[in-house]
UniProtKB/TrEMBL annotation:
Binding site for Zn(2+) 2: 129, 162, 191
One Pfam family named in its UniProt record: PTE
UniProt GO MF annotations: hydrolase activity; zinc ion binding
InterPro entries named in the record: Metal_Hydrolase, Phosphotriesterase
Residues the entry annotates as binding Zn(2+) 1: 20, 22, 129, 248
Cofactors (names): a divalent metal cation
Family listed: Belongs to the metallo-dependent hydrolases superfamily. Phosphotriesterase family.
Residues recorded with modification N6-carboxylysine: 129
Highest taxon in the source lineage: Bacteria
Name by which UniProt lists this protein: Phosphotriesterase-related protein
Amino acid sequence: MVRTVLGDVAATELGRVDAHDHLFLRSPALPGEELDDAAAAQAELAEFARLGGGTLVQWTPYGLGRGAVDLPRLSRDAGVHIVAATGLHQARHYPPGVVEALAGPALAELFVRELTEGIVPGVRAGMIKVAGAYHGLDAHARWTMRAAAEAHHASGATIGVHLEHGSSGPEVASLLCDELGVAPTSVILGHLNRFPDDRALRELAATGCFLGFEGPSRAHHATDWRLFDALASLIDAGRTDQLLLGGDTVVASGRATTGEGPGAPYLPRVLWPRLRREFGADAEVAITITNAASAVANAQGRGELRDKPLEPMVPQ
């Protein structure tokens, strides 16, 4: 099963998946580029659906303006499944005091709470998003990943990891999988398009984790031209079943319908058809449907689904 903002659905019902994107996002690190317009999000999702998109996985974690109240309506109106995230990003993405308020066991408790009870009443998170540091794991990354592992073991939720500029993948896999006991099939290593070293990517694939590529966002388009070479190298190495593709629209100007693009619709409009042309129908179905469904599916029983009203923690 996959936990969406409208409830749990069978993984086989997701259709083609944008495995890493954002309809809403607000960060002090991206001033003036906030994704905080519900109407713009609605237009983007409607165009994504019109072109054949079935599910969008929003990696926006706690405290970064996830738009949790709006997500169910947007999902129903567009006919697109949405998976929301709990988790915590790098500290630089938060105003002073937000991260400090979650010290100690409060962080893991927050993650579990949002996975099992809800971000807001009736809207539960379906994955956990955390982040590494640049070419290493600092104390913040280790703290958040330990909390994510605890929440995973309590809920079965997948852990998606922002790799800063695509770095530190081996260190993340070692911590989460070897030390903290998270199955590699419950870990997505994201932003590997930003570090397109074919040899390093093949070594990283040996960890068994899912490998996320999010090429088209305007914020990091310099490596777009390496995307298909990186995918080809991994497909040739027999790693097709670990590959994921996302849009990762992180700035308002990157939306396709209200900005300058490419946005989430770029996947069904350009990248998915190109996958089929370059690698064949089987590989395209694996990357856009089968792998994505496996990557975000619940690894075990998610625990008790509680019906009691929930007062959300602030900020959202």
